[in-house]
Amino acid sequence: MNSKTVFSTGVGRICSGCGWPERDCKCSSRASTESVPDKIVAKLRIEKTGRGGKTVTVVYDLPPNAAFLRDLSQELKRACGTGGAVAEDAIELQGDLRDRVRELLLSKGFAVKG
After folding, report:
1. What pTM was computed for the model?
2. Are 93 and 79 a contacting pair, CB within 8 Å?
3. How far is CA 114 from CA 6, 42, 44, in A?
4. Which of 53, 85, 90, 98 is placed for a possible disulfide with 60 were both Cys, Cβ 3.0 to 4.6 Å?
């Protein structure tokens, strides 16, 4: 029988990627330990779809390292004075901040497209 757990109070939250409890998740531990390459190419885009008309700047195609993404997200949010979130291999910032983000990423030595 190949079924997925929908809800369980005994194990806590379930990872949507692999179906294991979050504390035993196989995909998040692999993503958090992956190394960060020397040359990083960050891509920028603006999204409005599905956000109630609000504009969001998305920095995507980043290395899937959880600590790296969290630190970069905090730095970008602090520099731009805005809110945001980390999603998979992308960082979402509230507002149209392409110019500020591009300058900051270039100063950190990233290659920026978009």
Report:
1. 0.70
2. no
3. 39, 9, 5
4. 90
Residue reference for tokens 């294991």 = 20
Tell which residue, 60, 54, 61, 106, has the closest CA to residue 82: 54
Partners of 14 in beta bridges: 21
Name 82's Cβ contacts closer than 8 Å, sequence gap at least 6: 93, 94, 95, 97
Q: The tokens of 16 are what? A: 């949507």
Contacts of 70 by beta carbon, 8 Å cutoff, 6+ apart:
86
- Return the closest-CA partner of residue 50 out of 62, 58, 40: 58
What is the distance between the alpha carbons of residues 25 and 33, in angstroms, rounded to a whole number? 13
Look at residue 74 in the predicted model and tell me its pLDDT: 96
